[in-house]
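User: quick one, fold this
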Amino acid sequence: MAAIAAIEARGFILGGALAHALGIGLIPVRKRGKLPWATHEVTYDLEYGTDTVEMHRDAVAPGDRVLIVDDVLATGGTSLATAQLVQQLRGEVAELAFLIELTALRGRDRLQEFQIHALLPL
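Assistant:
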């Protein structure tokens, strides 16, 4: 595993702790306009509109395996957008890990091509 991509903002807490424990890098994934350098972005649909997430352009090297971490898997939109960012930079999404999965929202359906782990499926 080359790095952990942690989704703003609670994902930073989980991702930061995991990255530290594994001795690997942390990639912050943030809403548009929050990162201080050149970025790639993906815009995705929400139930009520659209949103955009960004990652630094130099965060992932071609072939890097990246674990995506967030606190909650709900509809899967932000997680899918993050996976697309990793893939745009020619990295490989190793897995997605969540503290909680809200199973009734069926976010896993949008992420079928990836291996998903959730500590607390609710």
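User: anything notable?
Assistant: The mean pLDDT is 96.
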